[in-house]
Specification:
CATH class of the largest domain: Alpha Beta
Domain LysM: 69-113
Order of helices and strands: HHHEHHEHEEEHEEHEHHHHEEHEHEH
Organism: Vallitalea guaymasensis
Bound molecules: zinc ion
Structural class: alpha/beta
Protein name: Peptidoglycan-binding protein
Pfam families: LysM (PF01476), Peptidase_M14 (PF00246), PG_binding_1 (PF01471)
Active site: 388
């Protein structure tokens, strides 16, 4: 068990909690309560009862994390029976299997049975592995969602994009440009899950009709722009294939990467877009930055990094109405860039401020340099926003999640139709 990371143990504790085996703190330590929960889980899943996280136990837990199981139709099965057998509900099965006729089940075919819990965890560090796992689970559960990748990170991770809706009003939301602001990824993923669940029943969220949104808008969401950086912040250099010694050196010799914002080339992705980039490079020296590091280094040219390039390419490829970039520094919404934004930006910004309770930033323009929303406003003269969702030292503690979600649920609905 020695080589299982603390974040993985938290992931397991969080799942055992969802399944009803574990009711204690999600602390990443394997102590008595966790061992008891593992034993009970093993017992109910016909595994050897060891209380240890051996490979077959971990595999079984990983299966559950996707939030669904496969069931082969047997003689006499009804969806109601199947739902009961797996302790879930019929509408989830119908949603996940749009091509299965509930009144004419074909013996021997396999159907997806979503388990009766939400799959995006909001009480643990949200690693790239959790993201992949959630994407797999959501794609099975909600086949109307579209998933793909807009590129690869420096270290070879996918830059996933999830698409909601098929309307003509196109918007882009993204999170985790900055590695230690990874809490913005589960924010977007949770919102996708809630939206999809309600949409599958043609319901409303906060008075917003999800079917109307689906038909009016297309929402492209890139929940983790900087997956290598997120990996570094949560698990250190262990799962990174790039030069680990070099990374630690750039991190001022520190093996704890909590202050790290950059990608693993040591480039601050939100200082790597072509908007005042040259001006920014002058400032960089004043900040004492002279090369790759945890933050504020703008790279050797705009879009030098595969992550910022992929984000810019996606944005160029679509005729968008607006974009949102999620960050965490101060509960404030940035909306202007050198006064180049269209007039409506202020009105939309005020509406977002009202919906979220965040402050709309003053018109002080000194802070804007080479960021995604700056570049978007400069190049497209359309409304672009940086939404800073929290206060305190990064990475924000995960127990701020519920409040952050509460503040942003309506804003995320609104942004697709305003
Ligand atoms: Zn940021």
């Amino acid at each position: 068990m020695d080589n299982i990371s603390k974040s993985k143990i938290k992931e397991i504790q969080s799942l055992l909690n969802k399944l009803g085996y574990y009711n204690y703190s999600i602390d990443g330590f394997i102590e008595n309560y966790t061992i008891d929960a593992i034993k009970n889980f093993q017992k109910n899943n016909n595994l050897k009862i060891t209380g240890e996280l051996d490979q077959s136990t971990i595999d079984k837990i990983d299966d559950y994390m996707t939030g669904y199981v496969l069931h082969t139709i047997e003689n006499g099965d009804t969806l109601y029976d199947i739902a009961r057998k797996y302790n879930t509900v019929v509408w989830r099965i119908i949603t996940a299997n749009p091509n299965v006729n509930p009144f004419d089940l074909t013996i021997g075919t396999s159907i997806i049975v979503p388990l009766n819990f939400q799959i995006v965890p909001t009480n643990i560090p949200y690693t790239y592995n959790v993201l992949e796992n959630n994407i797999m689970g959501l794609s099975k559960r909600y086949p109307f969602l579209r998933f793909d990748s807009i590129g690869n990170s420096v270290d070879g991770r996918q830059l996933y994009r999830i698409r909601i809706g098929n309307g003509s009003n196109h918007v882009i939301y993204n999170g985790a440009h900055h590695a230690n602001e990874w809490i913005t990824t589960p924010l977007l993923m949770k919102w996708i899950e809630v939206f999809s669940e309600v949409y599958s029943r043609k319901g409303s969220i906060r008075g917003y009709d999800t079917e109307q949104i689906w038909n009016y808008a297309t929402i492209d969401i890139v929940p983790m722009v900087n997956p290598d950086g997120v990996e570094l912040v949560i698990d250190g250099v262990d799962n990174i294939t790039a030069n680990k010694d070099q990374l630690i050196k750039w991190n001022f010799g520190n093996e704890n990467f909590n202050d790290w914002k950059s990608n693993i080339n040591g480039v601050d992705l939100n200082r790597n877009y072509d908007a005042g980039w040259k001006e920014y490079k002058e400032l960089e020296k004043e900040f004492g930055v002279d090369g790759p590091g945890p933050f504020l280094y703008g790279g050797t040219k705009p879009e030098s990094e595969p992550e910022s390039l992929a984000m810019a390419n996606l944005t160029r490829s679509i005729d968008t109405r607006l974009v949102l970039a999620y960050h965490t520094q101060g509960q404030v919404i940035f909306w202007n860039y050198k006064d180049l934004q269209p007039e409506i930006s202020l009105y939309i910004g005020e509406t977002f401020a009202k919906a979220s309770g965040y402050e709309l930033a003053s018109e002080d323009l000194s802070q804007s340099f080479a960021g995604y929303k700056d570049w978007y406003i400069l190049d497209f003269r359309k409304p672009g926003y940086t939404i800073e969702v929290g206060k305190g030292k990064n990475p924000l503690p995960i127990d701020q999640f519920d409040m952050i979600y509460e503040n942003n649920e309506e804003l995320l609905l609104l942004a697709s139709i305003i």
